[in-house]
Amino acid sequence: MLENIQCPEDLKALDPGQYPALAQEIREFLIQKVSEHGGHLASNLGVVELTMALHLALELPKDKIVWDVGHQSYTHKLLSGRREAFDTLREYGGLSGFPKRRESDYDSFDTGHSSTSISAGLGLVEARDRLGEDHTVVSVIGDGALSGGMAYEALNNASRLKSNFIIVLNDNNMSISESTGGFSRYLSRIRLGAGYNNLKRDVKRGLSRVPGVGDSLVENISQAKMVLKQFMVPGMFFENLDITYVGPIDGHDIATMVRIFKEAKKIDRPILIHVKTKKGKGYQPAERHPVRFHGVGPFDVESGKPLEAKTGISYTEAFSHTLCRLGEKDARIVAVTAAMPEGTGLKKFGVLYPNRLYDVGIAEEHAVTFAAGMAAGGLKPVVAVYSSFLQRAYDQILHDVCLQGLPVVFAVDRAGLVGNDGETHHGVFDLSYLSSMPGMVVFAPKNKYELRSGLEFGLSCGKPFAIRYPRGTAWSGLKECHAPIRLGRSEILTEGKEIALLAVGDMVETALQVRDLLREQGLSPTLVNVRFVKPMDTELLDRLARGHSLAVTMEDNVEAGGYGEAVASYCNGMGNGMKVLKKAVPDRFVEHGAVSTLRKLLKLDAGSIADEILNVWKGKEI
Fold it and tell me: CB neighbours of 102 closer than 8 A, spacing ≥ 6?
């Protein structure tokens, strides 16, 4: 059946009795494609029937669906004519793993970060109403995303709305990890409180059967119903915001969802429909381990095991092991995660020291200020977070940490190009925004050994401290080259002349290859492990300027506001005569693809950098 569905109208042409078989076919298709290309599996398996029901109840693409985060949109893409493109899933130039407006008219809003869908949907509703249009807008948000404060800001704004807006709460008791916090407990009470809805239905049916007065009794009791709700329904949180609450309903019952979605389109106010789904449904390995199968690389379908053998520990694991070791020595060390204890490597710390790990939910802003408060009180907080998500807490880092000079350590994971998740997940802005903040120390280790010593240094330096490291296997090269870490001092790895290669963090490995390529051309460059992007080692720059005419900065961060710009500004200001060639991510959003592919595209691979250096050195046009 799936091969014959190119648009929602093809789905609507099926007999409803075929829906379960189609759902199974979709799951088999997704499991096969994700096993080949990697991607987000468990979340997509959980929303197959929900997505089918939305496509059946709505008039797409006239109507609009906003998928919160967006990694659960695979079935939506399948049902909107993109089945064949799944052979290029998450590859460069291929199908994105997230909604993209430029990819299809069926994608109404680009998403990739959590808790944004209600705000975006509300904006689409206001645009619809002001332009006199009549389509339906649906925001699909997960229960984990409701731990993010932005969702409540939007709900507060939506409460004033006097026209139709549908919010679908996809409740699977998970974000990436298991949902935590007060709202998670609140939803649990709703799931267990379905008795109210059954009672309301039975009372209405009974009263309606009373001859002559039944209908009027039903009408007159409507006000008393609100009192009953106050006693029996936790869902009154939404009702008190003037948002009609319906649920919880079975998120795998297509017929019921279609009926409710169609009825919801008729209501001239916001309505929240609470559906209960199972993350990983239909694939036992994903049902048993939904966190592991949230985002996966290629795997064996039969066993669920990864196809690629692990070659070494990751940077995340190196961070985790070091923090656990340091935590044993110092009870003041505490850790904070925004709903990602597994992804950031903090789960082991939480097992060893359960009272010192704080999972605050998808609330990066709160995580940072919470950590600032703990630092002000004498603790040593470590906030572990992906680079792309840390930018959500820019104001809190600036005002609540740096302004007071509080010793909060930021373990900035997934820094640089992360690959197949694309624009919304690349961590290529952190060097720029962190180094713009007065008092912030920004450290980038060259390998796993330096990560370990850098984290220990950061916890002892008494300043706001960010240590940023990439995704994937930790480089173990240059173990023998490890000068003691001193604040604001870089490390010279190779003494040379005329050309200086200044590499930041993960780019040191590339810089070694560039050095060797230049040596083949008869040049003898100096190689520097920058270590500290801030404070910048100006003493070293002054020294280099006396024996080098060209400095080449190398960073996996955008050029604007990055390390290279800082070096160029300093050299120009000092008038030291050293020319600066900046190699960084250009001023554009980088799409999804393998990191090696993207680096070649951006000319950040060793061969491209060496060629450009030679052209500059020979005085040729770049």
Answer: none
